[in-house]
Amino acid sequence: MKVFDGHLHTFRFKVSMRESIDLFKRQFERFNVEKMTFLALPCDACPGRVEFDQTDLLDNIRVMYFKAVFAPNAYAYAGLEYKDLDTKDKKAVAADLLRQVKEYKARGYDGMKMYEGHPNHRKLLGYPLYDEIFDPYFDYCEKTGFPIIMHLANPAYMWEEDKVSDYWKARGCFFDESYLTFAQFHEEILKRMEKNPKLNFTLAHWGYMTYDKATIEKFMSFENTVLDVCPGHDNFSNIAEDMDYWRAFIEKYSDRIVYGTDSYNFEYDNEENWLLATGRRPLLVQNSLTMGLDEQFEYLNLTFTGLSLSQKAQDNILYDNLDRMLGKPNAIDFDYFIKKCEKLLETVDENSLDRYNLWCMKHDFKSIKEGTFTFR
Q1: Helix axis angle, 17-30 relative to 353-370, nearest 10°?
Q2: Secondary structure class of 347 (helix, strand, coil)
Q3: Which residues, in sequence order, are bridge partners of residue 299?
């Protein structure tokens, strides 16, 4: 069973880029990942950044690096950057977002990853997802068919303080009255879809719409909307509460639902911990999609059963849909990324992991371009 994992990240943590190649290789071999998409999260480019502690401005380069390393089976989605933009000048911001997406497409990215729908990022930006500031950007993506995947909202319980653990509160995931409500996020995205009804648009983590069947049906009423099945807290628990509905829903839209795991270059501590960390999400999704109703499996001390999907639905979701949607990866402008690395090398701490990674990426981009790249 080959799979196309359309939702991978490249968080830096303590793992170097070259070490990450081996770690990703092991993950891909273990779960038979034949093709993959790396999604950037340059969120601390956002003005007023306070919450984001796992992302950085190098992420757009890192996802392209992994696309180059795992070519021709890899894809990369860029993220919009807001550094140095005056968010009070809406016309200037709108023009720059359009400039960015055009540049990303021309340099070899295959789509856009948007975190603007996350409650923290949305609050910092301050603009509705349907605001005119985003119109040129979305209009361009709609006209050219350039794909977008967005993280929208978060689990509904995160708006209820007594249901949010201290762990998630510490990570900024309790949303009080200063945030949009859970429902308002879905209202905003539906308004955006009304502006751009033919947008090639995917919502990650089911769009956290497994709480609201009416809303998810409205979202799917637009012809090019897609759902990514990445685990997202209790999405699969919600599905388990009404298997008949969700099985029928998934079969109906099986040509517009795609596989993803939200996995990344997990730091290697020891074999047992690493296998557990890298296995949880892929096994939850793959078991749900491929097992029957009479087959059980465990995930985080909960018992689930398979969805008993048809073979066609399984094939669509696990591989065929993304393969059809993305086609051949866009060509990489290696000189552009070599120059980006050189420029950033002038600004980072000499003793930092970022500097080492930039140095490696600069040289590896060059050797990949020349066809001389080897790793171990």
Answers
A1: 70
A2: coil
A3: 302
Beta carbons within 10 angstroms of residue 110's beta carbon: 24
Q: Are 124 and 48 in contact (CB under 8 A)?
A: yes
Scanning the chain, the segments in alpha helix (DSSP H) are: 17-30, 59-69, 90-107, 119-125, 135-144, 166-170, 182-195, 213-220, 235-240, 243-252, 271-290, 311-315, 321-326, 334-345, 353-370
pTM, whole model, 2 decimals?
0.94
Under a CB-based contact definition with an 8 Å cutoff, are residues 45 and 300 in contact? no
Nearest to 141 by CA among 76, 73, 224, 217: 224
CA distances from 333 to 111, 244, 371 (A): 15, 48, 14
Q: How far apart are CA 221 and CA 214, in angstroms?
A: 11
How far apart CA 230 and CA 282 sit, in angstroms, is: 9
Residues 6+ apart with CB under 8 A from 149: 6, 7, 39, 77, 111, 112, 113, 114, 201, 202, 203, 204, 228
List, run by run, the mean pLDDT of 10-residue segments along the chain (376 residues). Answer: 94 83 94 97 56 61 96 96 74 93 98 94 90 97 98 94 91 91 96 98 96 95 97 87 96 98 90 91 95 92 93 98 98 97 89 90 96 81
**How far is it, in rounded angstroms, from Cα 317 to Cα 255?**
7
Question: 18-35 burial string, b = 16+ CB within 10 Å, else e?
Answer: bebbebbeebbeebebeb
- DSSP assignment of 237-259 equals HHHHTTHHHHHHHHHHTGGGEE-
* Rounded Cα–Cα distance for residues 197 and 373 (Å): 43
Q: Which of 60, 69, 55, 54 has its CA nearest to residue 18?
A: 69
